[in-house]
Specification:
Elements (H helix, E strand, L loop, with lengths): L1 E7 L2 E6 L11 E10 L1 H7 L15 E9 L10 E4 L2 E2 L5 H4 L15 H8 L5 E2 L16 E4 L7 E2 L6 H4 L5 H10 L8 E5 L3 H12 L4 E6 L2 H10 L2 E4 L5 H8 L5 E6 L10 H12 L7 H9 E9 L12 H6 L3 E4 L4 H13 L11 E4 L3 H10 L7 E4 L7
Length: 395
């Protein structure tokens, strides 16, 4: 089959690889109909996520048709399913707490040591990411093997086309959980750093949850325009002192909640960020957390800090004093996708949530490397790329 494979920083290619096979009775094989490039895929593309190997098949946002099932899979051939990017068994201690992204069983035992050393506990399995997370082949491919298929995938109705439901795999529940972790109250003012796909869905979610004011922070005009269409007020951080503006927009108190949808590759020319860029390039620091530090400084005393943006290691100059002295609440984590898919599917069906407004490009899988390059280098125009296996070029 054809699949998008990683060969090094800024080097991804569509290669012919072996077809996936049923390995476990709970497995299923999915013929991929739509798959997307995620902002966190760009961390792999940039080479800042450890333990990625040449030939790894990328992609963790995908959906398709069930074509083969193991003896214990509850799926049926021909069903359309969206597959969560988190691989979860459904029966371990954490899955029973609905903490599906902390599943005890989905990361193979022989791959758990690396993440246990980094984080104190082994991570769960994720599709198409790092060998820290199991080294599973991803969904930017014609076919993919789905472990625990009796628990994770959600069957979607035929009257909803792929574009409307594809993002149930990751960025919609990630944006929703990012807003939920901000514990938004009806009178809250919420600031969101980053108007990429997760940031835009966090903005939409915060508005649906009843925030009185949502403020979007970015520097790409088109992405800020999308946020404004959703109902957010906007700040271009290259033209405005963000903390000063947020103080004015919150009556001099500071915003009630902040959401960092940027993660480990902050933009901007702040001194701390420029130092972090150098450290990241030479491998002595993993995370550029300038946006998160700015958010912590901007939130009010007793405020709430939510981190849906991805971080992988350590960061310097962490404002621990501000966190303690201001009495902040901080929540983050990989998304517990399966906790949200049923309710979010209902919100898509009844029109509460729009999931298609951010798609800027649809490409054949064969043009995936072009999609990565432009999604990375032309972020103003390329807001979200959906790849279609089998799609003819130029359609």
């Amino acid at each position: 089959m054809r699949a998008l494979t990683w060969h090094g920083a800024k080097d991804v290619r569509v290669d012919t690889v072996s077809d996936p096979e049923i390995v476990n009775p709970r497995d299923a094989i999915i013929k991929v109909t739509s798959t997307a490039i995620c902002g966190s895929d760009l961390h792999l593309y940039d080479g800042v996520i450890p333990a990625v190997k040449p030939g790894d098949v990328l992609g963790h946002e995908f959906m398709g048709e069930v074509v083969e099932t193991g003896a214990k899979s509850t799926l049926k051939k021909g069903q359309r399913v969206v597959v969560p990017f988190t691989i979860s068994c459904g029966g371990c201690f954490h899955c029973k707490q609905q903490q599906y992204s902390a599943c005890d069983n989905s990361n193979p035992a022989e791959k758990q040591d690396m993440s246990a050393t980094l984080y104190g506990q082994p991570m769960a399995g994720l599709f198409g990411y790092s060998h820290l997370t199991g080294g599973y082949s991803g969904g930017q491919a014609e076919y993919v093997r789905v472990p625990y298929s009796d628990f994770g995938p959600i069957v979607v109705p035929d009257h909803l086309d792929d574009d409307k439901v594809l993002f149930l795999s990751d960025i919609l529940p990630t944006g929703w959980m990012g807003a939920e972790n901000a514990d938004i109250q009806p009178d809250d003012t919420v600031a969101v750093w980053g108007c990429g796909p997760v940031g835009l869905f966090a903005i939409q979610s915060a508005i649906v949850m009843g925030a009185s004011k949502v403020i979007a922070i970015d520097h790409y005009p088109n992405r800020l325009a999308l946020a404004k269409k959703l109902g957010a007020e906007i700040i271009d951080f290259r033209e405005t002192d963000v903390r000063e503006a947020l103080m004015e927009m919150s009556g001099g108190i500071g915003v009630d909640a902040v959401i960092d949808a940027v993660g480990m590759e902050s933009h901007g020319f702040a001194v701390d960020n420029m130092i972090d860029i150098v450290k990241q390039k030479v491998g002595i620091g993993a995370d550029r957390a300038s946006a998160l530090k700015q958010a912590i400084m901007a939130v009010r005393f007793g405020g709430k800090v939510s981190i849906p943006g991805v971080y992988g290691g350590m960061t310097d100059k962490w404002p621990l004093g501000a966190m303690m002295e201001k009495g902040l609440q901080l929540r983050g984590g990989q998304t517990h996708v399966q906790k949200y898919t049923k309710d979010l599917l209902a919100k898509i069906e009844d029109g509460t949530l729009d999931t298609t407004f951010l798609i800027s490009h649809r490409l054949p899988l064969e043009q995936a490397s072009e999609g990565y390059k432009n999604f990375k280098e032309q972020q103003n125009e390329w807001t979200k790329v959906v790849l279609k296996p089998g799609m003819e070029s130029g359609t």
